[in-house]
Specification:
mainly alpha, Non-ribosomal Peptide Synthetase Peptidyl Carrier Protein, Chain A, globular
């Protein structure tokens, strides 16, 4: 895993991966923000979200569990995930990984 990723690089990887996923489905990625909901705004089904995570896992060389993302830090299921949720989840996983490597 690349522990030197910046927040901007993580966002770029999310954007590029999402764009590729939507293009494969014959859709275009419009303007997005941290508040963009994966299902309501971008039209992703659960299987699409899993595909997105798997592709990001490969790019970022880290494991991303959908169930962890879907429940969030408070442990309750989230109705619709936002790109901000995804970004924060990846940053948290990366930070956690960096702390365990330093310990």
């Amino acid at each position: 895993m690349n522990e030197n990723l910046t927040a901007a690089q993580i966002w770029t990887d999310i954007h590029d991966t999402l764009k590729q996923l939507l293009e494969e489905q014959g859709q275009e990625l419009g303007e997005i923000s941290r508040q963009s909901a994966l299902s309501a705004d971008l039209g992703l089904a659960s299987i699409d979200m899993i595909h997105l995570l798997i592709t990001l896992e490969d790019k970022l060389e880290m494991q991303l569990q959908f169930d962890e993302l879907a429940t969030g830090p408070e442990g309750q299921f989230r109705e619709d995930l936002t790109l901000g949720d995804l970004n924060d989840f990846i940053e948290t996983k990366l930070t956690s990984r960096m702390k365990s490597v330093k310990a």
